[in-house]
Structure formats: C-alpha cells, structure tokens
Design brief:
By secondary structure, the chain is mainly α. The protein has 3 helices and no strands. It has a domain of about 70 residues. The longest helix is centred in the N-terminal third of the chain and has 26 residues.
Length: about 100
C-alpha cells in the first residue's frame, strides 16, 4: 500500500476515534441538555450516529491536514544563499503632488 494512502487511512481512523470521544464527552457532560434531548427521542441511535459521523468528517479532515503539513521539509539556513541588500530612497515610494498646492 502506498505511504500516502496509509497516512490517509490512519488519520481518518484517528479523526473518527477522536469524534467518538468528543461525542461521548458531549453526551456524558450533557452539554446544552443534549443527553436529555437524545435519550427522549425515538430516533436516538440515528441522532448519535449523525452527530458522530459529521464530527468525524471534520476531525478526520483536520487530522489529515495537520499530518500533511507536518510532512514539509524544513529549509536549512546554510543553503539559502547570500541575502541581497536593497536600499530605497524615501522619495522613490512617495507620490509627489504638484508644486504650489
């Protein structure tokens, strides 16, 4: 299996695992009276599944984005080359008006 596919699957599973923990904490702490609303509903399983799945999509996307950004190579200062010194005169960047105003 290619490394990128393995990275994607790993991070998606991690994101959905974090989503399960998050939804469990939401229900256990009864945030916004969510446990009472869901437990009194006839479609409680569907509500919990949708809450888990939608948060899982978000958490998986963020997890994968962080993993991809961490793959970037850091530039080494020794290979940057010589900096170029640029000097500007104060008048070159200021638009001059007509004299006499």
């Amino acid at each position: 299996m290619p490394k990128l596919i393995r990275l994607y699957i790993t991070n998606v599973c991690t994101g959905f695992g974090l989503s399960a923990i998050f939804v469990g904490a939401l229900l256990w702490l009864n945030v916004a009276n969510l446990w009472v609303l869901i437990s009194g509903s006839g479609v409680a399983a569907l509500a919990v599944f949708m809450l888990w799945f939608m948060n899982g999509i978000v958490f998986a996307g963020v997890q994968f984005a962080l993993a991809v950004m961490n793959l970037a190579q850091r530039d080494d200062d020794r290979h940057r080359g010589t900096p170029i010194a640029v000097s500007f005169s104060p008048d070159s960047s200021v638009a001059r008006g007509k004299p006499g105003r």
